[in-house]
């Protein structure tokens, strides 16, 4: 997997053949008249009308880019197939989108195409029969080999990857340069960085806890780092009701350091506010991913930020980059417009147009046909990935992730103790096991 993540395979060359026939004979004028009649009939035939229902949870910040791309697809579908496509698109926020989608799928009110988290959601959605097998589609042969397993199960490609991520935390490169700082590799080194920032009257961390999914980010970062170093059996034990977060209580070390050295009014700042404040240099670091690159650069197009692994303890082997495919697009098994929905998913990885789409979204390349240059923050993370200092995003039940965000909000607000957070997460994981939502 690690080798595949670092190497693009050869491009899959897909050829299409078109056969054309020519009529002949002595009665050329009659043939020409017949052809003209047929062409007139074809061009004046009423187009087939199709409305696609699209559910893009957590992608509301990219509405403009997606809506524009869908219009490009509609033009293509009309020209090539005489199908007039309209879109009923929803962009619910990341806070509520997962529950809304689960309710829709369970009640039969299904969108044709919907977004999901490839690692968190794909197993349970596949098991429930909600997903269409895309393995025989042209898009399947285009997905980079290292990414394809993350959007597949039982050797079936089940989703189109959108956000391929290498992330940890963001840091302001200009501030680090001005103060002679480099990304720390241990918790003790991070404490020294924090002290240097405070001495120079620079707030160390951006805190944006209005939305619970943001403090939730501590969970995959700390669990991932520890599972891939000192606690390799933690996930297995939790999935068998034999473990406890008490075993990795050291995760609170970095959480406490961040919470004690952050911006004011954390509960008044959401993701958009946080991106704007971080872009303007209000804090030197933000426990957040590069998926906010577009929002940061919209707030300040001169902002220079990097990506580095988050130190958890004083073991550098635990300081690793998280590699993941978060957002992916799937087609409902119950879609009533399967032909057009499949056409759209294939267009998402169109050899030419998708380069502009992914670049406008500030996403990493995911297709063998993507040729756009990677971004500086991608290159920063790649240094660690190329040095094997990374792990695949840990598979944690969605319910546990959701609960961790709320619990860590309460922990920051001193309404829950460490022990209460641990007990809460332990119980939520056991409930998820019982419900079969691993």
UniProtKB/TrEMBL annotation:
Major subcellular location class: other
Keyword tags: Signal, Transport
Pfam families: SBP_bac_1 (PF01547)
ATP-binding in keyword set: no
Record's signal peptide: 1-21
Localization in the cell: Cell envelope
Entry annotated with the keyword Signal: yes
Summary of the function given for this chain in its UniProt record: Part of a binding-protein-dependent transport system for a sugar.
Family indicated by similarity: Belongs to the bacterial solute-binding protein 1 family.
Name of protein: Probable sugar-binding periplasmic protein
Source organism per UniProt: Paenibacillus gansuensis
Record lineage: Bacteria, Bacillati, Bacillota, Bacilli, Bacillales
């Amino acid at each position: 997997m690690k080798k595949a993540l670092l190497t693009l395979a050869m491009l899959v060359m897909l050829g299409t053949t078109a056969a054309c026939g020519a009529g002949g004979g002595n009665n050329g004028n009659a043939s020409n008249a017949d052809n003209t009649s047929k062409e007139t009939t074809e061009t004046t035939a009423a187009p087939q009308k199709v409305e696609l229902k699209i559910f893009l949870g957590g992608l509301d910040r990219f509405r403009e880019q997606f809506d524009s791309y869908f219009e490009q697809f509609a033009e293509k579908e009309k020209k090539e197939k005489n199908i007039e496509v309209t879109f009923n698109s929803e962009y619910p926020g990341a806070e509520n989108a997962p529950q809304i989608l689960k309710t829709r799928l369970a009640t039969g009110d299904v969108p044709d195409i919907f977004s999901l988290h490839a690692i968190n959601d794909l197993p349970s959605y596949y098991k429930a029969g909600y997903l269409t097998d895309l393995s025989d589609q042209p898009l399947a042969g285009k997905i980079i080999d290292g990414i394809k397993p993350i959007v597949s199960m039982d050797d079936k490609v089940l989703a189109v990857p959108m956000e391929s991520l290498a992330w940890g935390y963001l840091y302001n490169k200009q501030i680090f340069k001005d103060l002679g700082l480099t990304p720390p590799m241990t918790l003790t080194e991070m404490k020294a960085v924090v002290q240097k920032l405070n001495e120079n009257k620079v707030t160390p961390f951006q805190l944006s806890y209005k939305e619970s999914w943001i403090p939730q980010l501590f969970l995959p970062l700390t669990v991932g780092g520890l599972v891939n170093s000192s606690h390799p059996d933690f996930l297995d034990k939790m999935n068998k009701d034999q473990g406890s977060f008490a075993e990795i209580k050291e995760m609170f070390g970095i959480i406490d350091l961040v919470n004690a050295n952050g911006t004011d009014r954390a509960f008044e700042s959401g993701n958009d506010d946080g991106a704007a404040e971080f872009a303007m240099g209000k804090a030197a670091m933000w426990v957040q991913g590069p998926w906010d690159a577009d929002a940061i650069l919209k707030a300040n197009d001169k902002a220079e930020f990097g990506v580095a692994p988050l130190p958890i303890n004083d073991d550098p082997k635990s300081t690793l980059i998280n590699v993941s495919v978060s957002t992916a697009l799937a087609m409902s098994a119950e879609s009533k417009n399967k032909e057009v929905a499949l056409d759209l998913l294939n267009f998402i990885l169109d050899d030419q147009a998708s380069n502009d789409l992914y670049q406008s979204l500030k996403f990493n390349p995911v297709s063998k046909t993507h040729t756009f240059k990677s971004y500086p923050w991608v290159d920063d993370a790649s240094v660690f990935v190329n040095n094997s200092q990374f792990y695949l995003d840990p598979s944690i039940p969605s319910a546990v992730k959701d609960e961790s965000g709320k619990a860590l909000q309460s922990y920051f607000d001193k309404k829950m103790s460490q022990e209460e957070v641990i007990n809460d997460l332990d119980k939520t994981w056991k409930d998820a096991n019982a419900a079969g939502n691993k």
